[in-house]
Amino acid sequence: MAKEIDFPPVWLAGFAVAGGFVGRNLPVVTPVNDVLGGALVCLGVAIMAVAAVQMLIARTTLWPRRDPDAFVHGGIFRLSRNPIYLADAILLAGLYISWDALVALPLMAVFMEVIRRRFIKDEELRLSERFGEEFDIYRGRVRRWI
To answer: pTM for this one?
Structure first.
């Protein structure tokens, strides 16, 4: 059961709830929160969709603990090795800002570290084992986040 809930969207939801709590109790209201937050949410969703479509076209898994069937390194993956996780972080920032939870923004760094330790590390190990030097060259050329 624990494996089923140890999934990036569950972590994203948990950090979003924490930010919502902060926004309710320590709001920092600015005139641009709604517009900026909304724009970041839209950007995060767009990046996530583009990356997911690329992975589906390549017929490889979107599930973080499954072995990849293909190595996706073009398109948005030329800019980030982990565009979906980057999109999660951008989406989270957008939610925090639109919820007046500016004080919660440092939680983004914690979220990103949790994702790195729990998912990215193992994903990149599987990619390296499966695709060898091709992935290692890619890893040297493309940053993890941006």
So the answer is: 0.94
